[in-house]
Amino acid sequence: MGFALVFLGLFLLLSRVIGLDVHQVMISWWPVILIILGIEILLFLFLNKKETVIIKYDFFSILIIGMLGTVGISFFIFSSVGLVDEVSATITSQDETRNLPELSEVVQPEVKRVVVEASWDDLTVEGTETNGISVFGTYRLNVSPHNETALDKEEYVTFNQIGDTLYVTMNRLPHKNGLHSNYPTVNGTLVVPSNLKLEVRSSGNNIVLRPRLQDADWTIERASYVIVHVPANEDVAVEASRVSHINHDHVEWKTSESELLEGSFIIGEGKNTIRILNAYQLNVFTF
Predict the structure, then answer these.
(1) pLDDT tens digits, residue range 45-67?
(2) CB proximity list for 60: less than 8 A, separation 6 or greater
(3) Pick from 36, 39, 11: which is nearest to 26 by CA?
(4) Is the separation of the CB atoms in 193 and 249 below 8 Å?
(5) DSSP readout, 223-286?
(6) Measured at the alpha carbon of residue 122, what is the angle toward residues 167 and 218, in degrees to the nearest 5?
């Protein structure tokens, strides 16, 4: 018993000096305690030359040994099923905001349409005059210092071209269940060529549109909240179908009275169209 306490104290002292993880030290120490107690009893039997050896333990010693054995077996079981790591991750975890790995894709000349499968929490779509698609943004997650993982580009977005259509799939980030559950949220930006038709198939997330020199039709389906920023000198028509709430900023809408609203307005000649289908709320701002 004395050897166990002495070695435990020395082990903890050295772990602090050389910077070992105390929780890992305590987990690995329990089998050592049982081994030291067993060696102590065997040494007592070996060094005592009497024919009849009686090992005397008082009630307190028996209680301590029983507790140590029970705790050691419990730690072994909890470690085997991963419960100790889960508790440690829950205690030491923290929320962090990180940058998504920036990803760019050159659009081939034969591509006429871009279809986006959007499952992120918040997505901003902007138009550009360049002939390429770029994806960037931030994501927020709960991480543990003992479980640092880097995010690969293929984990959050993939590109597939079929005929004249380029499919952009925005995947949900890997999540974790358990005591230390982790559900990352993503706030991303997608930049697409303004001269390509765009379809965004949402899964109930929030979408912000900034067309900028729009030269093709854009369609947004099944979004929750949609915000559209339209330049006042643009030639664009905004159409809404099956939208619960429509808010506008100095824009005169032509709407039909029903449970789900349908409406439209035109800026300039309305050369190109932005269609919002099956959304909960639509906000339109002109600048």
Answers:
(1) 677 765 555 555 556 666 766 67
(2) none
(3) 11
(4) no
(5) -SEEEEEE-TT--EEEEEEEEEEEEESS---EEE-SSSEEEEEEETT--EEEEEEEEEEEEEEE
(6) 45
Distance of CA 219 to the CA centre of its chain: 27
Which residue spans within 163-234 are E strands per DSSP?
A: 165-170, 185-193, 197-202, 206-210, 218-221, 225-230
> pLDDT tens for residues 106-131?
999 999 999 999 888 889 999 998 89
Strands 122-128 and 185-193, by their bridges, are: parallel
Which residues does 29 contact at the CB level (< 8 Å), separation at least 6?
Answer: 8, 11
According to DSSP, the β-strands at 197-202 and 218-221 are parallel
CA distance 33 to 7: 9
- Rounded Cα distance, 106 and 87, in Å: 46
Residues 6+ apart with CB under 8 A from 168: 114, 115, 116, 117, 133, 135, 157, 158, 159, 190
Encoded tokens for 272 = 């190109």
> Between the CA atoms of 158, 161, 164 and 168, what dihedral angle is there, to the nearest 10 degrees?
-10
Backbone CA torsion sign across 116, 122, 128, 131? negative
Please report which helix (H) or strand (E) contains residue 65, including its range. helix 59-80
